[in-house]
Write a structure and sequence with these properties.
Length: 164
């Protein structure tokens, strides 16, 4: 048995998986957002972790939602098509990651934005994220999304969940 074709296929498949999950793209430029310029606020210990807020700079004081913003939702859909849809479906069905249907009814808007922009600390501390990791077996990669990207994706998620 010749191992070279098998090794080539394995390397090619791994490379495609990394690219599909955002590992092969360019990093956001430094002017894109303060999310990449300043470290996110962190809790001092896991016992200080707020599971309704998540880990990051977003909270009820800086994330408010009202009636659905169709323009933001359209931009969020476009971003999701590029950065998210290779791992997430818009239904409850799991692909690589969990489906998005109902995500805005299960989590606060600021929790969602903190997870989108700051997944690694939340994977380490959030019980819901840890439970999903046990099911999906794949960590969500940091997609280097800007604060504005995260807000637009949130709006798209709200639209997907029927927000008006």
């Amino acid at each position: 048995m010749n191992i070279k074709p098998i090794a080539f296929l394995l390397i090619a498949a791994t490379t495609l998986a990394v690219i599909a999950c955002g590992g092969g793209g360019q990093k956001a430029d430094s002017s894109a957002s303060s999310a990449q310029e300043a470290p996110a606020a962190t809790a001092s210990s896991p016992s200080d972790y707020d599971p309704k807020r998540g880990e990051g700079k977003f909270d009820a004081s800086n994330v408010t939602v009202g009636p659905l913003d169709q323009a933001m939702a359209a931009k969020g859909e476009s971003i999701a098509a590029t950065k998210c849809n290779s791992c997430h479906k818009m239904t409850e069905e799991r692909l690589v990651g969990p489906g998005w249907k109902g995500v805005t009814t299960r989590n606060t808007p600021y929790w969602i934005m903190n997870f989108i922009t700051n997944p690694d600390p939340m994977i380490e501390k959030d019980p819901k994220v840890q439970a999903q990791l046990e099911l999906c077996l794949v960590r969500m990669p940091n997609q280097s999304l800007t604060d504005n990207d995260a807000r637009e994706i949130l709006e798209f998620m709200r639209k997907n969940d029927g927000a008006k």
